[in-house]
């Protein structure tokens, strides 16, 4: 990394107030960054801000952050209701739904508001960074990041450069991730990158086991926790990720890699159709209160 490269606080913009936007924003706030959060859906944006504040209070009550740190974080999260704030940001992290058309449309909308040296990062778990870069006029400042859910707790971020991402951009992104207290790994721009290319097919196979009535969800997860030293079972993890997200990644892998080994289990499709998506709907392979 180049000596002297730093990113100061008060320069992080996040677009998208869903599960990942909330988690990434919380990670930044906990590390002392001032977060400017935007979403077209004002109701969702305001709810996200409240959830972040609730999470910060929970961290404080659990003794994970000091009173001084907690008091400081209360001023670090700002809701933004237009794109005007973007020209003040050094890093903008896009965390909208995992859909090419939605992301490409967003990039075209925000392009006129960005500084020439703004780093734009797309948080994606499987979409092609090179394909997304084609819609951006400054692709050398564009990079893919894959934060895992819950972003505020998982200590790893995948970095996926596009073909023209500059070394300076990558150095700054590495520094930024390190400042968040996280580690990073690099992946080439291939479907699923590292984590999901390995993880999601394993989750899919666990769902096949359940669908074939080989074992209960509890026993499948217990087997992998105690027999393979997994910190949590694949079905519980799928619930945490979101079954709709798991399905979307599998569909991307099947399409982009043209292989039936990534074909989603019919039971997964059934659960998604019934809106049994896991923790976020309080019902998936397990029930949540």
What does this structure look like?
There is one protein chain. The chain is α/β, with parallel strands linked by helices. The protein folds into 2 domains: 12-186, NAD(P)-binding Rossmann-like Domain (Rossmann fold), CATH 3.40.50; 197-281, Orthogonal Bundle (N-(1-d-carboxylethyl)-l-norvaline Dehydrogenase, domain 2), CATH 1.10.1040.10. Helices cover 44% and strands 13% of the residues. The chain has 11 helices and 8 strands. An 8-stranded mixed β-sheet has the order 3-2-1-4-5-6-7-8. Helix 1 packs across helix 2 (42-61), helix 7 (195-211) packs across helix 9 and helix 7 (195-211) crosses helix 10 (243-257). The mean pLDDT is 93.
Spatial order of the strands in the main sheet?
A: 3-2-1-4-5-6-7-8
CATH architecture classification of the largest domain: 3-Layer(aba) Sandwich
| Overall spatial form | globular
Question: Which whole number gives the mean pLDDT?
Answer: 93
Low-confidence stretches: none
Number of domains: 2
CATH topology of the largest domain: Rossmann fold
Reading off the top of the CATH hierarchy, the class of the largest domain is best stated as: Alpha Beta
- Number of E strands: 8
CATH superfamily of the largest domain: NAD(P)-binding Rossmann-like Domain
Could you tell me how far the N terminus lies from the C terminus, measured between alpha carbons in angstroms?
A: 46 Å
Portion of residues in helices? Answer: 40-55%
Rg result: 19 Å
Biggest sheet features: 8 strands, mixed
* Element string (H = helix, E = strand): EHEHHEEHEHEEHEHHHHH
Class from helix and strand fractions: alpha/beta
Please, how many helices? 11
């Amino acid at each position: 990394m180049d000596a002297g490269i730093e990113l100061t606080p008060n320069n992080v913009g996040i677009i998208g107030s869903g599960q990942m936007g909330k988690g990434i924003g919380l990670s930044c706030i906990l590390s002392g960054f001032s977060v400017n959060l935007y979403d077209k859906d004002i109701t969702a944006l305001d709810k996200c801000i409240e959830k972040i504040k609730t999470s910060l209070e929970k961290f404080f009550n659990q003794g994970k952050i000091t009173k001084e740190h907690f008091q400081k974080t209360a001023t670090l999260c700002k809701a933004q209701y237009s794109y005007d704030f973007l020209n003040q940001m050094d890093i903008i992290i896009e965390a909208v739904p995992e859909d090419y058309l939605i992301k490409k449309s967003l990039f075209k909308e925000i392009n006129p508001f960005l500084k020439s040296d703004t780093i734009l990062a797309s948080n994606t778990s499987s979409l092609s960074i090179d394909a997304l870069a084609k819609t951006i006029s400054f692709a050398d400042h564009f990079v893919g990041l894959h934060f895992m859910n819950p972003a505020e707790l998982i200590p790893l971020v995948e970095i996926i450069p596009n073909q023209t991402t500059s070394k300076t951009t990558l150095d700054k992104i590495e520094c930024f991730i390190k400042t968040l207290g996280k580690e990073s790994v690099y992946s080439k721009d291939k479907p699923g990158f590292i984590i999901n290319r390995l993880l999601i097919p394993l989750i899919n196979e666990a769902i096949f086991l359940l669908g074939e009535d080989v074992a209960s969800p509890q026993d499948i997860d217990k087997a992998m926790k105690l027999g393979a030293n997994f910190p949590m079972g694949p079905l519980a993890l799928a619930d945490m990720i979101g079954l709709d997200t798991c399905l979307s990644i599998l569909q991307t892998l099947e399409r982009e890699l043209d292989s039936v080994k990534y074909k989603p289990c019919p039971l997964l499709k059934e659960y998604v159709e019934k809106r049994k998506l896991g923790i976020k709907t309080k019902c998936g392979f397990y029930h949540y209160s």
